[in-house]
Design brief:
This protein has about 210 residues and is an alpha/beta fold. It has a single domain (about 5-60, about 75-105, about 140-205), classed as 5'-nuclease (Rossmann fold), CATH 3.40.50.1010. The chain has helices spanning about 10-20, 30-40, 80-90, 115-120, 140-155, 170-180, 195-200, and strands at about 5-10, 45-55, 65, 70-75, 95-100, 105-110, 130-140, 160-165, 185-190, 205. α6 (about 170-180) links the parallel β8 and β9 (about 185-190). α2 (about 30-40) crosses α3 and α5 (about 140-155) runs parallel beside α6 (about 170-180). The protein is elongated. The model has no long low-confidence stretch (mean pLDDT about 90).
């Protein structure tokens, strides 16, 4: 008899790691199809998917003022917004997917990584509007993952929870699931995972990034 499983995916965490691992191979970034293929590769032959819980945030759609030239920036009209919106729309239509969306909250402007590297190297360049970007933080994602893990475990909906995340805030939820007799599988990329998470998992699997 197959093990019934639930996959819980921290979307932003996995997206960034796939981008790093597949650098130069993703002309359109991490698409919904690429994300879905990489998630499903870790499902084993003796397992049956109950649901893929995907946790993310909608793109920030506010209007802010660039601190360098005081220009008005309407994020909803930008290409990144359109691409992000398209990704979420396409991914939630995939088989067995349940989308769990938090809130994107702006945390002020910050220097771009490229400008910081130039400054560290000793180059003294004037700040341009493109040298800053708006810092956006996800809110409510960890809470939603924890609630779903607890619900799946307490109601005995699945036999095994597969967690794709590197956030140590997941540890209490992992402990609860194991106390309730649910197996916890932790997934990483290239065998990189926080030691504290690994200690509270029953099994460990690795995603080998594919396009």
């Amino acid at each position: 008899m197959k093990k019934k499983i639930a996959l819980l995916v921290d979307g932003e965490w996995l997206r960034r790691r796939l981008e790093d691992a597949l650098k130069g191979k993703l002309p359109n970034g991490v698409t919904a199809d690429v994300m879905y293929r990489n998630i499903n590769q870790i499902v084993e032959a003796d397992e049956e998917i109950f649901r893929i819980f995907y946790y993310d945030c909608p793109p920030f759609d506010g209007i802010e003022t660039n601190p360098i030239d005081q220009s008005r920036v309407e994020f909803k009209t930008q290409g990144k917004y359109q691409a992000r919106h398209r990704f979420l729309s396409e991914f939630k239509s995939k088989d067995f997917v349940a989308m769990r969306l938090g809130i994107a909250k702006q945390r002020g402007w910050t220097l771009t990584e490229s400008y910081i590297k130039k400054a560290i190297s000793g180059k003294h360049l004037p700040l341009c509007p493109t040298d800053v970007l708006l810092s956006v933080e996800q809110k409510g994602v960890d809470m939603r993952i924890g609630i779903d893990v607890a619900t799946l475990a307490l109601k005995r909906i699945v036999d095994r929870v597969i967690l794709i995340s590197g956030d140590i805030d997941m540890i209490p939820a992992m402990k609860l699931a194991r106390r309730e007799g649910i197996q916890v599988v932790l997934v990483g990329l290239s065998n990189q995972v926080h030691k504290s998470l690994d200690e509270d998992a029953d099994l460990f699997r690795t995603i080998s990034p594919i396009v």
